[in-house]
Amino acid sequence: MAHLFVPGPVDVDPEVAQQQTRPMVAHRSKEFEEIFHRAADKSKALFGTQQRVFISTSSGTGLQEAAMRNLVRERVLVCINGAFSKRWYEVATTNGKTTGKLEGEWGKPILPEHVAAALQEVHYDTVAVVHNETSTGLMNPVPEIAQAVRETSPDTLICVDTVSSLGGVVFEMDKWGLDFVLTSSQKALALPPGISLAAVSERAMERAKEVPDRGWYFDLLRLEKHRLANSTPATPAVSLIYALDYQMDRILTEGIEARADRHAAMRRRVEDWAKQRGFAMFAEDGYRSNTVSCVTNLREMDISGLNKFLGEREMRISNGYGDLKNKTFRIAHMGEIHMADLQILLAAMDEYLAKNHS
Ligand code: PLP
Description:
The chain is of the alpha/beta class.
C-alpha cells in the first residue's frame, strides 16, 4: 500500500530500501567500481541517451548549480513558470552568472515561440528549463522548446530539470538534442533522497573547458576524469548507489513505456475525480504532468484537516506550493504508486468530503 502521495520523497519498495543495508565496500575498490559503472550504464535508458551519466552525491539542486557553473559562459536564459524554475534562476544569479528571465504564467506552458523570440533579441549561450513543474503540476513541451532553441541559436546549450518526471515518462535526450538533463532520486525513481543524476552531452563537456571558476565539487571535467575510471572525486553515497543499481533493474523490468503509461492513467483518473467532485485542474489542458496533479481547491476544502484525516489512514497528500497553499492541493502519482493505491486514496478523500464538505 502506498502512503506518500506527495511529490517526493516518495515510498521506497522494501526490497530497494533493504539494499542499503548491504555491507559497506571501499569506494576505491574494484567491487564498487563495477556497481557504480553498472548503475550509471543502466540509467542511460531513462534519459534516452547514449551519452555519459554522472551520479552525484547531492540532491537535484546541486546539479542545477553544476549546470550553471560549468556551462554558462556569458549569459543564461532561465524559463520561469513555477517555483523550481524560479529557484534555478536564483541558483544562476547567486553563482554570479548574467541571467535573463523568460517568465510565463504559473500553470501555463513555456511556449517555444517565446523562447525563440528571447533568443533572437539577445544571445544566450545557455537555456534552462524545468520539464515538470512540481509546484503547478505542469509539464513543459521540452522537445518543441529544444527545437526552437536549435533553430534560433544553434550553439546555445539546453539544460533541463527532470527532477519530478524522469522515470515516470518516456524521455529522449539524444533525439531532442538536449545537453544537460538532471534528476533526483527521491521522486519518480522511487529511491530515498540523497543522490541525483545528470546526463551530459559531448558539446556540454567541450563548453565546460572554456568556462572558468567551475568550482571543485561539481566540476564536470574533474567528475568526468573520475567517471572514466568508474569512480568519483569525493566519497559517494555508496548505499544509495546499491539501491539505484537494484531499482534500475526493477524499472527496466517494468519497462519505461509501461511505467509512463501507468503514470498517465493515474493522471487521467485524478483529473476525472477532481472534475466530478467540483474541483478544477490548475495546469492547462494538454500540458498536465503525469507524475503530480495540482488541483484548484474550488470547494475550499480544509487541506490540513484532510491530511490529518488521511494521516489516520497512513496516507498524505501535498498542500499547494508557496502562494498556492490552500488554493491548490497536489496529489503525486509517481514511483511505486499504482492505480489500486490511488483508488484507496481517492475513496478516503471522498469520505472526508462527505463528512466535512457536503
Ligand atoms: N526541481 C524540481 C522540479 C523539483 O520538484 C525539486 C524538488 O522538489 C527540485 C528541483 C529540487 O530538488 P532537490 O530537492 O532534489 O534538490
